[in-house]
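Task card 7
Instruction: Convert sequence to structure tokens.
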Amino acid sequence: MTAFTGNKSGIGITNSLQELISPIVTEALFVSSEMSIMPNLVKTYSIPANAGKVLNIPIYGTETAIALTEGTDIVGTAGDLTINTSSQSITLAEAGLMTLVTDMTLNHATSNVVADLGKIFGEAIARKHDQSLTALFGSFTNSIGAPQDELTVEALFKAYSTLKSAAVPGPYFGVFHPKAIYNIKKTMTNTFNPQSNVNVVNQAMSEGYVGRIAGIDIFESSNVVEDSATSVTNAVFSRDALGLAVSSDLKIATQRDESMRGTEVVATTVYGVSLLHTSYGVKIIGDNQL
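Output:
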């Protein structure tokens, strides 16, 4: 069974497609929520219907309190502030995929087609959300490493120190390609603390959680976008660094194609991502080979 955008491939199904839409959606939403890491590590926003395609996020600067003298008015002093804000926008867009269910195999499917379709659609949507966010890692202004550098524990300590010294709010998360984090895992197996208080909320986070080192909760994911066959940009970041806005987690619809003697099943999501604070993360560039 194959599902992809732009082409059609045949699969079998055992009941009326319209009757199966609800369980397919349920399965796909479950798989999508279980197989994504990044949405649980960033700021998330829900956008209701008819609220526009662009969400503007207010960004506040860091202010400093001053020492006061008893009986002295604060008006006109350095503590008399005008709070100015900037903003970052998140623009919604669609992503999706489809497959064709043929009549020829309508009553001959041997697998659980509802579960299979839900798994395919759910995994694809989860992967798209994750990759859209990890693709923003290269936009962080703080940088460590170079292409083909092997990842070291020193780089993690340096990343933590960079964020902490700039008063970037925690907690801090590190998301790495499996081939990038391998060098640390093989040499520092006793350094990671598996008893971290990180909120591991789904299967992907549970399977991808490596441990805590240098105050950073480390995750590995194949959804970290590779720069090339030999280099990848990973990142350590604050939750406030990146934003994800979702208008529609997942929508599934059908359309009959009589000339193909089948029915198209289309899955779409409506979402947007943005870099909220360029200095709230550290990109760690390194080797992507074992």
